[in-house]
Amino acid sequence: MITDRIDEATGIPEAYRKTIVPPPKSIKVSLDDRCQFKCSFCSSSEADKSGEMPWEMYTSLVDEMVKVGIGEIGLFYIGEPMLAKRLVDAVLYAKRAGIPYVFLTTNGAAAKPEKVEQLMAAGLDSLKFSFNYSDGNQLRQVAGVSPSNFEKIKHNIREARRIKDAGKYNCGIYASSIMFDGEQGEKMKAAVNEIKDCLDEHYWLPLFSFGGQTEFKVPVRGNPGRLDQMRDPLPCWAAFREGHITAQGDISLCCFDSHKRWVVGNLSNTTFMEAWNCQEAQDLRAAHLKKDVTGTACEHCAVGT
Fold it and tell me: Of 13, 25, 232, 289, which is the most buried if we count CB atoms within 10 A?
C-alpha cells in the first residue's frame, strides 16, 4: 500500500544517517513546473516556470537511476504533471529502462480519462490525487480556479477507478488530504467520503508550512510525513532519502523547494549522484544530524521561526 512506501521513505535508516549517503530510495522529477492551480500554501506558486525538461536530460537521468540502483521515480515535484506533454512517454521510458515503480501525484483537474488510461497502459504503478478542498467555493478561494473544477476532479477520480477495473491495470489509485481543524476538517471528511470507495487507500497529511513560507504559518514544522506516522523535523528525511529535480534540471535537497535555496547542482553540468553527495549536501546533512540547522536554508522550515 502507498502508506507503507511513504513510511519507509520518511524513515531514515542507519545507513542513511551520514553526510555521504547511498543513492536515495526515489527521485521526484518535474517534466514541467507549471500548475493551473495557484494555491497560496503551495511552493509551486513561487516556482520558475520556464519550459519543460529537455527529453535528453530526462532520459539521461533515468539511465543513471538504473545504473546506480534507484528503483522509484515520481513524475512530479513542482507543478502539475498532467500538463507535461511527454508524460506518457516518460512513464514508458522509465518502465522500459527497468525502473520498477513509477508514480505521480496530481491535483486531478487535468487527469482526463483518456490520459489516465494511456498512463496505466504505459505501466504507471501509482496514481495519487491531492484532494485538499471540501467544495467548489473553497477551491476557487484557495486555488484561484473555477468552482466547476471540484466536480471535475471527483469525476476524474471515479473514472480512474473505472478504467483500472475495466482494463485490469496494475496501478494503485490513492488520495491524500490535508487535515484541517474544526468545521473545515469536518467538511473535508465529508468530501473524502464521497470518493473513498474509488480509492485503494486514502491518508491524511498535517497542515505543514511548505518550506517555511511565512504566508501560511502553522505549528507543524518541516515535512513530518503523513498524519498517522509523523516524523521529527530534524533530521529531515528529504535531504537523506529522496531526490528532487525541477524541469530546469535543478537538483534540490528539499521536497518543497521552489526558491532555489536548497539547490546543489544542475543536470546540465553534473550527474545526479555527484550533486547528491557534493560538499554542500554533506554540510547540510551534518547540520541536520546535529539537529541544529541555524543559519542554513532549512532554519525557518524545520525550526519554525
Answer: 25
